Amino acid sequence: MSEDVAWETVIGLEVHCELATQTKLFCGCRNAFGEEPNTNICPVCLGLPGSLPVLNAQAVELAMRIGTALHCEIRPSSFARKNYFYPDQAKDYQISQYDEPINASGSLELPDGTTVGVTRAHLEEDTGKLTHVGASGRINSAHHALVDYNRSGVPLVEIVSEPDMRSAAEARAYASELRGILVATGASDGRMEEGSMRIDANISVRPAGSDAFGTRCEIKNLNSLRSLGRAIEYEAARQITLIEAGNKVDQETRHWDEAAGRTESMRSKEEANDYRYFPEPDLVPLVPDAAWQERVRIAMGPMPADRRARLVDLLGGSVSGAQGDQIRVVVDLGLDTLVAAAVAAAAPAALSLARAANELASEGDAGLALPSESFAALVNMEANGALSATQSKLVLHTLVEKGGGDPAELAGAMGIESLGADTLTAAVAASVQAQPEAWARFVDGDDKLAGFFVKEVMEATSGKANGKEVMAELRRLRG
Prior knowledge:
Blueprint: E1 7-18, H1 57-69, E2 73-74, E3 80-83, E4 93-96, E5 103-109, E6 115-125, E7 129-134, E8 142-148, E9 155-161, H2 168-185, E10 197-207, E11 217-222, H3 225-244, E12 252-257, E13 262-268, E14 278-279, H4 290-299, H5 304-314, H6 321-333, H7 336-344, H8 349-358, H9 365-368, H10 372-383, H11 389-402, H12 407-413, H13 421-434, H14 436-443, H15 449-460, H16 467-478
Parallel strand pairs: 11-12
Antiparallel strand pairs: 1-9, 1-10, 2-5, 3-4, 3-14, 5-6, 6-9, 7-8, 10-11, 12-13
Helix pairs in contact: 1-4, 2-3, 5-6, 5-7, 6-8, 7-8, 7-10, 10-11, 13-15, 15-16
């Protein structure tokens, strides 16, 4: 094939989301991360003879929340046994949903307006966890393996997208938006570093403009958005190189080696018949009635897209590119309620958004815990000129450390006060006098030097000057 062929990447994602239930999917064992290995186990999740599964109603409700948020049809469903050699699943099969999933035919809209189809979002149980003991932590160099069955039987929802994504950036945007939805529904904490959300990426390439799909490879267990993006870019390039060299792409399952920055072959790709599905004989069909579905729908709060739209409305209906980025950060971190509360208390929307996205976002959970009245009062003090931007940031950081309080009282206790008009005028005049060449260029129209003078005045006043007032004084002097 000619090397000047333009290639298109085709991507579909399978996202496994651990549900935030109190107990496992088919037994009463605790569903908790990070506890001592093999302490949350029982005959059911160990698959011992005579034990029988009992379906967790909370898991069903959380699955319906996910389906509702993804605009799926919630359907009558059933469970099946997926037979496979699972070294970390004691009964050697997984209870999953096969041809009758609880959620099907949905969609997810990305922040840029692109829509990705959702094929299904079905319930299944998680496997245990293997720890390979050896230099690399991988099976090929392990001396032996340890098995922790605490995770075995934890409820999962597997969300399978249509192959609608065409770039690593689009796949990352989908995964990020989906994570926000999972957290917003309360179905999961979305912590990829703990395995609460794990991604398998199906990747193929084809000549641009072609409608035919290429041979796909599945990249397993990507546990960060960064790894997802890197794995897609590497795998697409690998497949293109193979095809252009006259070779073919084998359909297979591959592993992403984060340290090496490449994918590696694991095994040939399985098909449905390899799993020898058959109906789970110990579980009856699952048929949530209309009343239950309606209770789930009514109880759900706004999704990330709704919350972004609310912030846009608070900003007057249109936003700059930087504000769009700030909105995404604030919504992703759950800080949008603080911004809305500040605006309701007459604080400027743009300044409230900026302080939340640029300062509170770096404070972690402590920033989320800041009382809305403290945040609103602080933003209003800055907006009214009682604090400079630098002072406002200092007071905000201390408010977060103290868990709230009156920002005016705190500023006084910290020795922070606004600069009087006479003092500010004198500070600007001193800066102008000390930099005659720069001032002459500013007077001649070099507006870039305004930032230089503001910085000089801020340093001279230990951050007490208000940047807007400094700019106003500079414009007055220039005439």
